Structures are given as structure tokens and as C-alpha cells.
């Protein structure tokens, strides 16, 4: 009979536990607070395989907190805005401090020009000889006036400082003004009343050369603010001579950058032995002047008007036009001296109507030089005495040029232009001969004579026209 051992036979409870699936995996061992390992003991008996319960699924993430992210953004934006406000206030304070420093240490305008004695500066007035001219678009205006002796060897007018700009006018004196002096009125138009303490219009003198004049002096604030804007207007009243002869001024000069120059018609009233007008970035407009020697200079603006010289005239510009009517006077027969004209420009055209005159209505010698670049030139001779000798040189680049000669012209001519053939437009005139010595694609040469005169006569004069990449034209 077999004996059955019931000790090793599993009980029903053990069979039920063996048929159940293993418990889910909970966690890996972690370090205890003392640095040693900490074990998680399962109450289900022996360790089970690390298998996730398929019914449990992946662990869920904590939900995002949208309201917290918006709060952080608003906080960052508020901090940035606060920093911007503080920075703006700080920079404004620095700018104000610098501006105040400049004004506290401003250039008061009393420093003399080189070679001049200390200027004499009168106080500004709210009216000019009992009148209060309009403020010219500004809320405030002030005035000052000076009398300069007529017999000074030189009359000099200058401006200095970053705030100095406006206009200077030379006019015939009114009958009620002092006829024995040149009266100079200066008006200043401005926004801020405190600015008046920083600008001056002063009488300037150079005793060793007997120079008399007026200077405008302003601070060297840069860049000026809106409150620093102002405008000057200087009016120079020149008396007319009581006799039939014009008033003679020995030396008249301006050195006034950023001042537009306007000269009334002083022809027959005032004669300048020496005249110099100098400015920049402002126009020069002359209704009529007559001078023995004259130099007119500006830039980035125009030179216009009517000019007469008995010796030498130079008009110089850049980046602006020259549109002038010029009369060149010469003594004529027996006078070896030439009356000369120079028209110099760059990036601006030259257009001039020319009158060649002679005291004897015959002969006369003249020299004209006209040079520009990237702009055309046009010279039109409407008057010239018989048997006169003219030397003309005109040149440009990348633009056409032309010269229209008076019928009395006699002499050589030479025309040159690259890439375009020069042109001679000849009008038939009785007694005149036009001959060509050379004609090619880029150059034309020849001469003009009257009534079969000997060639030694036409060798005294000559016309030379030149351009590049455009045509030059000579009209005879």
C-alpha cells in the first residue's frame, strides 16, 4: 500500500496565489538620507520580474499651468518697461547736463578775430531807430546798428560760430541815414529769450590797416537743438555819391558762411576797387556791381546777377549753377593789359552772357577761362569791339559745351571732344573768311579772318573748347 506525503502538497491558498499575475513594478532603489542604499521590500514574497502591468498604461504628466506662464510674461514685460523708463530718464538727465555745461561755458563772441583788436559789442535793442520790424516767423527779434567811416581802407564783414546763418544785403543808403558813413544794421530772430545772451554783433577793427567792419559771433554748440535756432539779417547801407561820379570803396570783403548774399543795383553809384564776397551753402545774387577786381565764391548753391569789371573777375562755385551777365571793360587801343574773367565750377553748369567793351570802341584784349565738370557750359558773346583780341578756353566733362561768338571775332579755333564729333556752325558774313586746317572725328581746327587781313592778326586770338563723352559746338 502506497503512502502519500501530504506535507509537500500545496494547499488551495498557495495554488491560488501562484495562479495570480505578479504585482506591478513600483520603484527602483534610491539613496537614503544618510547616503546609503534604501530598498523597497515587496510584501508579496519573492522578488518579481520588473514588468509593467499592461492594464495600467503609461504614467500621466502633470497638467500645464497656463495662468502661471502668463503671469511670468507680464512680470518680465513690466520689468523691461521699468528699465526703459529709468534709462530714458537717465539719458535725458545726461543730455540736459551736457547742454547746461555748454551754455555755462559758451563762447560769448567777444574773442577777437586773428589780427583784429577786441570787438566792441553794443547791447541788443527791441527796436531799430524807433521801428519794430516783423520777427520773420520767430517769436522774438532784436537789433543793433553801427556807423562805419567811409574812408576806411577796408570794410570787412564776418560771421563765426555754429549758430551763425541768415542773409546779408548791400543796398543804397536811404536819404535819412548818415551820408558820411556806411550804416550796418543787424537783426537777430530767435526762439528762446535766453539765447540772446549768447550771440553778439560787434564792431571789429584792425588799426594798422585801417579796417572797419562788423562781425556776428555765436556759440559753438553742436548739434544745435530746436531752441537754439535763430536767424541773422545784416543790412549794409552804402551811401551814393553826391556828384555824377560814383562813390569809390577801396576794399570791401565778406566772409560769412551760410549767409545768402544779395547786392542791389549799385552800378553807377558805387565802384569797388577790390570786392570779395565769400560764403558757402548759400546763394549770391547781384543786381548790378562794378569793380576793378572782384572774387565771388560760394558752394552748393547758385551765383547769379550782373557783374562788370575793368581788370579781373572770378566767379567760383561747386555743386551749383553759375548764371551771370558779365561786362569786361578794356581801355582798348594801345593798352597791353587784358581784362580777364574766370568762371570755375564743378558739378554745376555755367551759362554766361558776355559783353566785351572798349573805351575807344576799337580793339581791346580779353581773356576768358570757363571750366566745369559733369555739367554743360554755354557762353554767348553779344558785344565785342572791332579788331579786338580774345583768348577763350572752355572745358567740361560728360556734358556738352557751346560758345556763340560775336561776328567781330577773328582768330584761331580748336574743338575737341571724345566719342562725339565737334561741330562748327558757320553763318556766312560778307568780308569774313573761315578756313579749316584740320578736321577729324574728334577734333576740328581752323581760323577766322576779316577782309583778308594778314594771319599775324588772327594769331592774337584763339578759342579752345573741350569736352569728353559729349559734343562741343562753336557758332561763328
Write up this protein.
By secondary structure, the protein is mainly β. It has a domain of 175 residues. It is 11% helix and 43% strand. The protein contains three helices and 28 strands. It has a 26-stranded mixed sheet that branches. Strand 25 and strand 26 form a beta hairpin. The longest helix has 39 residues. The N and C termini lie far apart (160 Å). Keywords: Membrane, Transmembrane, Transmembrane helix.
Layout of helices and strands:
Blueprint: H1 12-19, E1 30-31, E2 37-38, H2 66-104, E3 120-121, E4 140-149, E5 154-160, E6 166-172, E7 181-190, E8 200-206, E9 211-217, E10 230-238, E11 247-255, E12 259-265, E13 270-278, E14 284-297, E15 303-316, E16 322-330, E17 339-344, E18 350-358, E19 365-371, E20 377-383, E21 389-395, E22 401-404, E23 411-418, E24 423-425, E25 432-439, E26 443-450, H3 455-458, E27 462-468, E28 472-475
Parallel strand pairs: 5-9, 5-11, 6-10, 6-12, 11-13, 12-14, 13-14, 14-15, 15-16, 15-17, 16-18, 17-19, 18-20, 19-21, 20-22, 21-27, 22-28, 23-27, 24-28
Antiparallel strand pairs: 1-2, 3-8, 4-7, 7-10, 8-9, 23-26, 25-26
Amino acid at each position: 500500500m502506497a503512502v502519500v506525503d501530504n506535507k509537500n502538497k500545496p494547499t488551495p491558498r498557495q495554488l491560488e496565489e501562484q495562479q495570480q499575475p505578479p504585482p506591478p513594478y513600483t520603484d527602483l532603489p534610491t539613496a537614503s538620507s544618510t547616503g546609503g542604499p534604501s530598498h523597497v521590500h515587496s510584501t508579496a514574497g519573492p522578488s518579481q520580474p520588473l514588468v509593467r502591468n499592461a492594464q495600467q498604461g503609461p504614467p500621466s504628466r502633470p497638467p500645464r499651468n497656463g495662468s502661471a506662464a502668463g503671469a511670468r510674461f507680464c512680470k518680465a514685460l513690466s520689468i523691461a518697461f521699468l528699465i526703459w523708463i529709468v534709462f530714458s530718464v537717465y539719458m535725458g538727465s545726461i543730455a540736459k547736463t551736457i547742454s547746461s555745461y555748454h551754455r555755462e561755458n559758451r563762447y560769448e563772441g567777444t574773442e577777437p578775430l586773428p589780427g583784429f583788436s577786441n570787438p566792441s559789442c553794443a547791447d541788443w535793442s527791441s527796436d531799430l531807430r524807433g521801428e519794430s520790424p516783423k520777427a520773420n516767423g520767430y517769436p522774438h527779434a532784436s537789433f543793433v546798428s553801427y556807423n562805419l567811416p567811409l574812408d576806411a581802407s577796408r570794410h570787412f564783414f564776418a560771421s563765426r560760430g555754429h549758430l551763425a546763418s541768415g542773409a546779408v544785403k548791400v543796398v543804397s543808403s536811404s536819404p535819412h541815414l548818415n551820408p558820411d558813413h556806411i550804416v550796418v544794421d543787424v537783426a537777430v530772430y530767435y526762439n528762446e529769450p535766453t539765447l540772446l545772451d549768447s550771440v553778439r554783433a560787434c564792431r571789429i577793427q584792425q588799426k594798422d590797416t585801417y579796417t572797419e567792419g562788423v562781425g556776428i559771433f555765436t556759440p559753438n554748440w553742436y548739434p544745435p537743438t530746436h531752441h537754439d535756432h535763430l536767424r541773422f539779417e545784416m543790412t549794409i547801407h552804402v551811401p551814393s555819391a553826391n556828384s555824377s561820379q560814383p562813390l569809390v570803396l577801396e576794399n570791401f570783403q565778406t566772409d560769412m558762411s551760410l549767409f545768402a548774399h544779395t547786392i542791389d543795383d549799385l552800378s553807377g553809384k558805387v565802384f569797388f576797387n577790390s570786392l570779395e564776397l565769400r560764403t558757402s551753402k548759400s546763394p549770391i545774387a547781384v543786381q548790378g556791381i562794378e569793380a576793378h577786381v572782384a572774387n565771388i565764391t560760394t558752394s552748393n548753391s547758385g551765383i547769379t546777377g550782373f557783374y562788370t569789371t575793368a581788370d579781373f573777375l572770378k566767379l567760383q562755385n561747386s555743386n551749383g549753377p553759375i548764371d551771370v551777365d558779365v561786362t569786361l571793360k578794356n581801355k582798348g587801343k594801345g593798352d597791353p593789359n587784358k581784362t580777364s574773367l574766370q568762371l570755375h565750377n564743378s558739378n554745376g553748369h555755367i551759362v554766361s552772357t558776355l559783353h566785351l567793351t572798349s573805351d575807344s570802341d576799337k580793339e581791346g584784349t580779353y581773356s576768358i577761362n570757363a571750366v566745369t565738370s559733369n555739367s554743360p557750359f554755354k557762353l554767348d558773346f553779344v558785344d565785342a569791339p572791332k579788331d579786338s583780341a580774345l583768348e577763350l578756353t572752355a572745358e567740361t566733362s560728360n556734358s556738352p559745351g557751346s560758345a556763340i561768338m560775336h561776328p567781330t571775332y577773328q582768330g584761331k579755333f580748336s574743338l575737341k571732344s571724345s566719342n562725339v564729333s565737334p561741330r562748327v556752325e558757320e553763318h556766312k558774313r560778307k568780308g569774313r573768311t573761315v578756313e579749316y586746317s584740320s578736321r577729324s572725328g574728334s577734333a576740328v581746327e581752323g581760323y577766322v579772318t576779316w577782309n583778308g587781313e594778314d594771319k599775324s592778326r588772327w594769331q592774337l586770338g584763339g578759342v579752345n573748347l573741350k569736352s569728353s563723352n559729349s559734343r562741343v559746338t562753336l557758332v561763328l
